Prior knowledge:
Mean pLDDT: 82
Number of strands: 0
Shape: globular
Order of helices and strands: HHHH
Largest sheet: none
Structural class: mainly alpha
Strand content: under 5%
Radius of gyration: 14 Å
Amino acid sequence: MERFDHHHCLEFDVLNDYLDGELSATSCAELEEHLRRCPECQEILESLRQTVELLHHLDDVLPPLPPALEERLIDQMQRRLQDKHH
């Protein structure tokens, strides 16, 4: 079974690592192949990419969030996206 089957579609850690350039070359190629066939993951990745970009821009104008609040917000976003695709 391929590593990036539908079960892994909502693996934010993998998508985050991909956006951050932290995946191995093999994992990156596997994920890119999966993304070519999975519109749902394409949508999630694009949403995550836009969110990260927005957060980077907010860093310039807003004071940083307390770490506990930031973690709670990220957890809530992950749950909402997971619920949306189940």
